[in-house]
Amino acid sequence: METGVTxxxxxxxxxxxxxxxxxxxxxxxxxxxxxxxxxVAERTDAVIAALRGxxxxxxxxxxxxxxxxxxxxxPGTAAAFRxxxxxxxxxxxxxxxxxxxxxxxxxxxxxLGLQSLQFDVQDKSALLTRARELxxxxxxxxxxxxxxxxxxxxxxxxxxxxxYSHAPIREVAMAGAAKAFDAAAINITxxxxxxxxxxxxxxxxx
Length: 206
Fold this sequence. Notes:
This protein is of the alpha+beta class.
């Protein structure tokens, strides 16, 4: 049986976000599948063109989901099919949300839905490195304290396992027709983005 002590240390680091991700949907209802698909594709293309006109690159706009399904209708009423595309828009202009939304609304009108927006950090590698350092330092301090209480001296590390989590900035769900929103009235303020690393460390006795 392996002797020693196993402890868990955690480290959390926060920083200002540098990217904004906006989730938009484009939907259209038509009496048949072909019309629903064609119309939603046309309106999605218009939204993409409008966003590109605001300076976004093609890589900044991605299709995340495509759906076509028959809507439930009361018996005896005509069939209807809903087509939808969901787009994720990424921008480093953290204050330009209103301009992007207005451009998309102008292109698609009430067919546009605003699903959510989220501030994030694009490259988390430096944050993770610092969080690991803090987590290991805490684990070492705990191990030293427990070894002293048990009458031992702390030895070498024999095993480490890591878990990682991050808290995106203000992921705000805003599902609904974008036309119903006044973009200028939506107050979005970036806070801090946090990453947390937990390390389970096993130390042998010296």
